[in-house]
């Protein structure tokens, strides 16, 4: 039975993660709205909303998966269909924001995250709920409010309740840049940290760019007042050292707060159990086999993206349900309540 406070909430779902939408609707005590999202033979996306949504508050649950471009088009067309159907508000519930890693200018590319933000706002979205953005500054690309929720309380709870003898653990940062995040976890769990130093070299294809070519050194006219023996100095290339561990993991449980290919190194350094924790856990097609054959004991991810197929292929993969956080965020936004409680005492992450 729907309460008066949720009677005008409509939960719509794309094809990316209908199971998560079902969980959110169940927790809110509302029925999912009738919405058909399908593809024509020429792969065009079609959206048909079955019920009247005039004056209703719409929450579209659509996350980023491997079929990322279809996920985006489904979201944009659903939002625009709601806008043209006179919905009161249209909130995008996007646990994993697609293209969020392309938030910086690289070589002669572009900042795709900003382009996507403009497309979402133009389509009719009036609010965004997401989780653990790659960079929190991404919120500035949007012309509508963005609530960046945190999964860290769920991961911390899992460590405390599901890892035996977790007090004999050490939090491992995947690189010096993520040491701040690892330190935040370690302080809340009263544990020590270790840092992975050195990574695999970048692919040679990353260097195929005109800006890596040596500068032209012009001939210097000595008759002019100029004391320069060479032209523009060549920028020295980075040489990353072999992967090694800074910190003591011998005889300890190693808990990595991001997925990295460093399990072998941690095992060689004496870690007797290895747990990998990640919020979204976008796994490649061969990841289940690689995880199964690795010294990793468990890979713990949230259900912000679907993992059912990978879990059937590898019993080391565990998921944490975060639908309670998303449903609470929806309830608070709908009732115009403060969101501060959801951000209180959470792990600070870059």
From TrEMBL:
Residues 9-124 form the Ribose-phosphate pyrophosphokinase N-terminal domain. One of its GO terms (biological process) is 5-phosphoribose 1-diphosphate biosynthetic process. GO terms for cellular component: cytoplasm; ribose phosphate diphosphokinase complex. One of its GO terms (molecular function) is ribose phosphate diphosphokinase activity. Signal peptide: none annotated. It comes from the Eukaryota. Keywords: Nucleotide biosynthesis. Gene3D superfamilies: 3.40.50.2020. Belongs to the ribose-phosphate pyrophosphokinase family. This is Phosphoribosyl pyrophosphate synthase-associated protein 2. It comes from Papilio machaon (Old World swallowtail butterfly).
């Amino acid at each position: 039975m729907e309460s008066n406070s949720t009677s005008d909430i409509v939960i719509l779902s794309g094809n990316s993660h209908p199971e998560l939408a079902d969980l959110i609707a169940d927790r809110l005590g509302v029925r999912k709205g009738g919405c058909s999202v399908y593809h024509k033979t020429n792969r065009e996306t079609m959206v048909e909303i079955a019920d009247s949504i005039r004056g209703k508050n719409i929450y579209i649950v659509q996350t980023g998966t491997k079929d990322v471009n279809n996920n985006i088009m489904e979201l944009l067309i659903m939002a625009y269909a709601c806008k043209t159907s006179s919905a009161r508000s249209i909130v995008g519930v996007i646990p994993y924001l697609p293209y969020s890693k392309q938030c910086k200018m690289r070589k002669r590319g572009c900042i795709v995250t900003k382009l996507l933000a403009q497309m979402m706002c133009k389509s009719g979205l009036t609010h965004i709920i997401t989780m653990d953005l790659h960079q929190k500054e991404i919120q500035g690309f949007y012309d509508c409010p963005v609530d960046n929720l945190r999964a860290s309380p769920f991961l911390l709870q899992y460590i405390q309740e599901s890892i035996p003898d977790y007090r004999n653990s050490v939090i491992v940062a995947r690189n010096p840049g993520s040491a701040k995040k690892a330190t935040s976890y370690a302080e809340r769990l009263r544990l020590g940290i270790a840092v992975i130093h050195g990574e695999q070299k970048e692919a040679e294809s990353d260097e195929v760019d005109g800006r890596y070519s040596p500068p032209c050194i012009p001939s210097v006219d000595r008759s002019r007042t100029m004391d320069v023996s060479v032209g523009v100095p060549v920028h020295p290339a980075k040489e990353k050292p072999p992967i090694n561990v800074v910190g003591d993991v011998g005889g300890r449980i190693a808990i990595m707060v991001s997925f990295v290919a460093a399990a072998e190194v941690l095992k060689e350094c004496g870690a007797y159990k290895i747990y990998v924790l990640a919020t979204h856990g976008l796994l490649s097609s061969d990841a289940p086999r690689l995880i199964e054959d690795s010294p990793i004991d468990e890979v713990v991810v949230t259900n912000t993206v679907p993992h059912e197929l990978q879990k059937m292929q590898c019993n080391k993969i565990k998921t944490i349900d975060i639908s309670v956080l998303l449903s609470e965020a929806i309830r608070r936004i709908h009732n115009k309540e403060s969101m501060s409680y959801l951000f209180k005492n959470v792990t600070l992450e870059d």
